[in-house]
Specification:
It contains 7 helices and 9 strands, in the order ββαβαβααβαβαβαββ. The chain has 234 residues and is α/β, with parallel strands linked by helices. The chain has one domain: Vaccinia Virus protein VP39 (Rossmann fold, 3-Layer(aba) Sandwich), CATH 3.40.50.150. The strands form 2 sheets. A 7-stranded mixed sheet has the order 5-4-3-6-7-9-8, sandwiched between helices. A two-stranded antiparallel ribbon has the order 1-2.
Amino acid sequence: MKFTDSPVIELPVRDAVLSIQQDNGSFHVGTSVWPCSLVLVKFTERWAPLPGPNPGPGPNPYAQLLDFGSKRAVELGAGCGASGMGLYLLGLTDVVLTDIAPVMPALKRNLKINKPVLAKTLKHSVLYWNNADQIKSLKPPYDVVLATDVVYIEESVGPLISAMEALVAEDGVVLLGYQLRSPEAHKLFWEMSERVFEIEKVPHEDLHPEYAYEETDVYVFRKKKKKKEKEEDP
């Protein structure tokens, strides 16, 4: 499947199909479905262990990473909800989708449209990355933080990384779908990220072959371990 500007994106996830409405004429970027969200969902679909006694054929280097049983998750910049809904269908059943207030109508509309597929309305909340009270109200820490196509404005990079750091558990992960949108934001994002996180890039050949866009990547962020001060000898 190729990325499209059609008003409706259909995203197959195992035996289900998500139908995601977008408004490309909106002034808010969150009302469009961006490629990274699809790439992250289909990467996860390829490697997430199947439920039941048979986890799937062959060795799976991502089995532990994508085994979502009993894990709490939050999505930053959920937009139309493709990533959060897709990963919910792949086992991430305790997830809250967040975005800024102007994007909420689009997110809520898509959660409602897909309720028959999801069998519930997923949790959602307004979140501005620089709002400490809103971050606190989400009751972190989370085992998994999702973020796709969230780096495009230089001014938002600092608040984004601060929010990621505040929300993810010490032993948690950030699953990031990334595409270069702004050279300035790109440079600052990676400079700041490397101070806080250990960063692992998923090899391109491990992405879903039908959703492996040349310019799009998936990364796994883990918090750097804090250096413990050596205890002084008595």
